[in-house]
Specification:
globular, alpha/beta, single chain, Endonuclease, Chain A, 434 Repressor (Amino-terminal Domain)
């Protein structure tokens, strides 16, 4: 059987196809069986999976009905059409929802998995206001944050380790009330039994190994996925030889960052600052 290997990082269209294939194979369906459920020919399914044919809105909605995935494929189609997600991110989100361990590092803003809806909305509305994205994409970004967070609420939730650069808690977003609620969310996150929250303080200086956001996932089979992004590009990797150095650097980051207790104390101090402000 000829099977074309997919490179979800090559384009948003390829990421859609890779997500379609992984969802189908998780259920052990053939392309023909999925095509029957979606009312498409198997050759059409193959063409979308391998990136030879772009998905349509109707196709995406049919996929969501077949998989019972809410509006995930429709959302990926909208992002593909409008290009508001960086390459590699749609495929990463699919893995994130199934990960058993999640390691995050973020600079500047609180990562999406830890954002309050109000904080997420301010970021999206600001992007709309400066003309970076149209209003409908702002709504989709907020909805995607909620969708990612909901995927983590399951009977056996993943272990989530987050290291936030101090800039994440010092940078005001949305005014005192929204920032106060966001910082409180971080304190509550740190108290969960399946989480570790640390702050990388400014005085770490050159000891901080990352300058850009990094996400590392461990899947149930102990394989790993890495996702990192710059201002205009995102990149996802599953190659062990590329991920191991990132994991080593992440361990070094955790060793030099504040302990969780000290991190929570710093966050509470920042909360007092927002009240006084």
């Amino acid at each position: 059987m000829n099977r074309k290997e997919l490179n979800p990082d090559s384009s948003p269209q390829a990421a859609f196809g890779a997500r379609l294939r992984s969802s189908r194979e998780e259920r052990k369906w053939t392309q023909e069986e999925l095509g029957q459920r979606m009312e498409y020919a198997s050759c059409h399914m193959s063409a979308v999976e391998t990136g030879r044919k772009p998905p349509t809105l109707r196709f995406s909605r049919s996929a969501d009905l077949a998989f019972g995935s809410g509006d995930m494929f429709e959302r990926l189609w909208r992002e593909l059409r409008n290009g508001s997600l960086l390459e590699g991110f749609p495929e990463y989100v699919g893995y994130e929802g199934r990960a058993v361990e999640i390691r995050l590092f973020q600079v500047g803003i609180v990562p999406g998995l830890l954002q309050t809806p109000e904080y997420a909305r301010v970021l999206a509305d600001t992007a709309v206001a400066r003309g970076a994205i149209p209003p409908e994409q702002g709504d989709e970004r907020v909805a995607l944050v909620a969708e990612r967070q909901a995927a983590l609420v399951r009977p056996r939730p993943p272990m989530v380790m987050a290291v936030l650069d101090e800039s994440c808690i010092r940078r005001p977003v949305g005014g005192p009330e929204i920032m106060q609620a966001q910082l409180q969310r971080l304190v509550e996150f740190a108290a969960l039994p399946n989480t570790v929250l640390q702050v990388a303080p400014y005085d770490m200086g050159e000891l901080r190994p990352f300058d850009l956001p990094v996400n590392l996932l461990t899947l149930s089979d102990r394989s790993m996925v890495a996702y990192a992004e710059a201002q205009t590009r995102g990149h996802m990797d599953r190659e062990t030889t590329l991920i191991v150095p990132l994991l080593t650097a992440y361990h070094q980051l955790q060793a030099e960052a504040l302990s969780q207790a000290a991190s929570v104390a710093m966050i509470k101090q920042a909360m007092e600052g927002t009240i006084r402000g």
